[in-house]
Amino acid sequence: METRAIQNGHKFSSDVMPLPNPHLVQMETDILYHIAIATNTHDLPSLFGDVKFVCIGGQPSRMSRFAAMVSRELGDPLPEGQTPQNYAAGTDRYAIYKTGPVLAVSHGIGFASLSVILHEIFKLLYHSRCKDVKIIRVGTSGGLGIKPGTVVITKECVNGMLNNYYEMPVLGKLVRRQAVPDVDFVNDLKRFADKMCCSFPTVTGKTLSVEDFYEGQGRLDGAICDYTQDEKTAFLKRLSGIGVVNIEMESLLLTALCHKAGISCATVCVTLVDRLEEDQLTNSRETMVEWQSRPLTLVTGYIKHKLGL
Amino acid sequence: METRAIQNGHKFSSDVMPLPNPHLVQMETDILYHIAIATNTHDLPSLFGDVKFVCIGGQPSRMSRFAAMVSRELGDPLPEGQTPQNYAAGTDRYAIYKTGPVLAVSHGIGFASLSVILHEIFKLLYHSRCKDVKIIRVGTSGGLGIKPGTVVITKECVNGMLNNYYEMPVLGKLVRRQAVPDVDFVNDLKRFADKMCCSFPTVTGKTLSVEDFYEGQGRLDGAICDYTQDEKTAFLKRLSGIGVVNIEMESLLLTALCHKAGISCATVCVTLVDRLEEDQLTNSRETMVEWQSRPLTLVTGYIKHKLGL
Fold this sequence. Notes:
Rossmann fold; homodimer; alpha/beta; 7 helices; 5-stranded mixed β-barrel
């Protein structure tokens, strides 16, 4: 990796992928701390300039498997026994793999963990002078009234108060960011799933996106629970009534931050349980690993199709 | 690990460590999904019944180093070259190590990631019939007006609106959880730091705890920034004026959930930067690794002292 390759006496350019931060062009060096990558130690345009798809998911192991799958499908499989190179190997907070124009990135659990990696991936794309990048979350979720194993492409997401925005304090004031989905991208993914892929069911629907797995999702099996079974059931039915088909912990922030930054994104999650039936994830690890591969299969096929392969 | 050891025909007992969830006693089996541990596959009282301290921090690698350090200090060092056993090895979402009565657990980044592991650790302690457990976060933070490398023991934490509670939607309604610190525990840690430990400075102070590293902490170097340098500086000075000495992303939720569950907790974080001076973390990795070991050193010494060793 070359040193200071993009630092040849000029400041960062914003002519390719503008980001909504006027301060960025003033910076001589940018340290992307949580992925152990910096503009003065890595030649970002050479390393990442060709990226067109960023696929993000919770676990490093799943994203490593995904990178290996993409390598195979794009016709450049890894040698037997070799695992994909982790570009964020200087830390264990996140993992980043790259296969051709596809980045595979882990984001951990929840809004805050996703927020940190999104800021740094947006800046990585910006410093790398990438163009026309799409970001896809490939994840897991709880379903509502659909068979576990079904893949959901989110067409709208709502927060825990059932509003379609993400709200956060900035300098002591609440800032509201609308979670505006890229409807064309969602429809394109659904058309691909229906016509050219896959052996498993795929639906589009509304996603509840919250910052907690237990109370925030109306589970009765957390360490803390102040509501009754009846109150829980009434809430889940209310969700179902407004079109919510799955519940997870990241799509709202992803959609809101990508919209703000002008980057196209989508969320593709498999459901591991029907929350109208139960709270706990009782299926075998093997079944769940197979289900977890479904969003990866769909998205890999979609990328291959879009690349004309 | 024995199977179904605590499932001999009886439901879970709540006579040792009650948790604020009346539904728990109705459950025949409890799958702690995100740590790949369950009551019907693990003999929890045998494995974890002696736990008295749970130390939590962001990164698995740091908590592994911490477990090795505790092993040495408690007089039972790991054999040369051996790494601590990860009890959550069935997943890569979190890592759990155990050394005598000390658990070392990774929590990832932010409230949501911490929330998932806290619910599951609380239930692990409950199912293991633990008594009188203390939870300590050993982490990193940005400082305000104090020298980088200083260790801060949080005596009060506030959210991004500068209120000392954590607020979250539950069944579509906002629930407010007061972040009430355990003042005696904080003072005990500070007394230990002053009298019996350490070569680095340790202070107590107020902590701002938010769900974002960039905008939420008033940084100018994120992918998105809608405010000016002057507005940022005014906010940081306002924080400093009300006694905030550091900024991080977990203590508020930790304090709020532990208070709700009746469990004693504290937050001990080193500062990696003085945010009144800069946003980026520009010190060398080696310096930061040394600084990151400081909370671990302080807490290991404290635990050793409390165990009478």
